[in-house]
Specification:
Shape of chain A: globular
Largest interface: A-B, 55 and 55 residues
CATH architecture of chain A: 4-Layer Sandwich
Number of strands of chain A: 14
Structural class of chain A: alpha/beta
Order of helices and strands of chain A: EHEHEEEHEEHEEHEEEEEH
CATH topology of chain A: Nitrilase/N-carbamoyl-D-aminoacid amidohydrolase
Helix content of chain A: 10-25%
Oligomer: homodimer
Chain lengths: ~300, ~300
């Protein structure tokens, strides 16, 4: 199977019809580059509304089979391309998710993944909006392969990448919306970007499979006015199964770039570097604990 | 606590007394640089005998409280420095381990760790020599901190780093013996070295704690004559809790370099990037499986 995947780094345009035209243009560009799959950033239909906690954005959430999914279905069919992004899902009153979706070339939905790890730190108040996912880490089968689709904050968790791989994913995809605090000094910004790239390349290495990332770009103001907003850093990239760049991180500008994944390379690398063979599953029980350190013994003693 | 750790990249000298003098000189150099801990490469007393399978090296193994441990005790006391390396341990007839040891400044043994992940690939036939460890992933408390000591091949396993961190390790140390097949083209060699650095920096990032590595250097011939031997690649380094270099990888030459770990930085980084807070322990059960893919359903059907 020849697999050409497009990574689309793009900004949110506050004019919704124009924004949709821009997404569509990027998908058309991906198709013209002969891509069979297009990876869009996280929550591609929305501004990054999690910069502050406000009830207003909940009105924007849609059921899974909603109008935005219909839009993705139409694009997928029109351009004959698998589309991967995430949606703001309204599942039940009081239960909302950040839900990745894979739409097949024929417009059918190949599968979904509800973001399992939810961040909450200044600028990224996602725990207010998103109920942690309950899909577990299950790859999604489609015409482009068996996709390990994860979302943004998941990229900091080796467990997520590992579980997708153990479940048979043949590549890992991360639709993402991450950026800098524009007021941070450049040394801090470099360190953050470098860490983000490094840990995802490491998922490729640890699991012997390609990793692909598409990120948001551009500055978005903080609606609350309490911060300087977020400068989304772009720099999507593709790494091969030894962490080597197939498409290096490029810039913080919009881009549509295509990578061709080499057939059978994962199988070859996993034989050459047989990490999965040597996992000590008998000794990994502590992974399901918060910490394996117990209550300090001194705490149990009476205090004078 | 001010922590200055020395990373010692060094070669094996086939003249054993001279080799010991070289180790001692490196420890003296570390002490003169005001280090409180010295990290030596894996199996520092030995040539890398795992290049081929032969019963002869088993005669070199020693019980834990053997003459080599005595030698480490003397050096630790003489130079007032914690020493970390690994030994070829004879535990019981038929049970041998690659065992990391932490020797305290006063010559006492602070603790051991038996290498849990054992490689076996051309040039690294360790499964023949080393029984997989049974210590689990328990940090070792000593005057230099709560050390997450792992060994070489462990560095490819995010689970090992994670379990050490969850058990309270305040840094991860990897005594190592890894190198190139000298006949591999330079692109392959670069990719291997880069992957090795990247995945260990990622352990620092995922766990918000420093990672320190010391590696063997120099060429060692394959005793069987079947290969071109191993060119040990050196390039030991220290990364901080965001994966940033505290000491960048240097060269494939011998070196004694000292890094000072910043107090409380792990605590600060783990608050700033609260990955440990957000782990989905409820959904990580698959980590203790080989794979979560079952028997193919078609296999159960009768075949025409």
């Amino acid at each position: 199977m020849k697999r050409r995947f497009a990574l689309i780094d793009m900004a949110y345009d506050p004019d919704p019809p124009r924004h949709r035209r821009q997404i569509e243009a990027a998908l058309g560009r991906a198709r013209s580059l002969d891509a069979g799959l297009a990876l869009l950033p996280e929550l591609v239909f929305h501004p990054y509304f999690c910069q502050t906690e406000s009830p207003a954005p909940f009105a924007e959430a849609q059921v899974l089979d909603g109008e935005r999914t219909d839009c993705l279905r139409q694009w997928a069919r029109k351009y004959g391309i698998v589309i991967v992004t995430s949606l703001f899902e309204r599942r039940l009153p009081g239960i909302f998710h950040n839900t990745a979706i894979v739409v097949e070339q024929d417009g059918s939905v190949a599968g979904i993944y509800r973001k399992m790890h939810i961040p909450d730190d200044p600028g990224y108040f996602e725990k207010y909006y998103f109920t942690p996912g309950d899909t577990g880490f299950c790859p999604i089968d489609c015409s482009a392969g068996r996709l390990g689709v994860l979302v943004c904050w998941d990229q900091w968790f080796p467990e997520a990448a590992r579980l997708m791989s153990l479940a048979g994913a043949d590549c890992l995809l991360y639709p993402t919306a991450i950026g800098w605090n524009p007021e941070d000094p450049s040394a801090v910004r470099s360190r953050e970007l470098d860490a983000w790239i490094t840990i995802q390349r490491a998922h490729a290495i640890a699991n012997g499979c390609p990793v692909l990332v598409a990120n948001r770009v551009g500055h978005e103001a903080d609606p609350s006015g309490h911060s300087a907003g977020i400068r989304f850093w772009g720099h999507g990239f593709a790494a091969g199964p030894q962490g080597e760049y197939l498409l290096p991180p490029d810039s913080e500008q919009s881009s549509v770039r295509v990578v061709e994944l080499e057939e059978d390379r994962t199988a070859a690398v996993r034989t050459h570097w047989p990490f999965l063979r040597d996992r000590r599953t008998d000794a990994y029980g502590g992974i399901i604990e918060r910490t394996t350190r117990g209550i300090p013994p001194d705490l149990k003693k009476p205090k004078d």
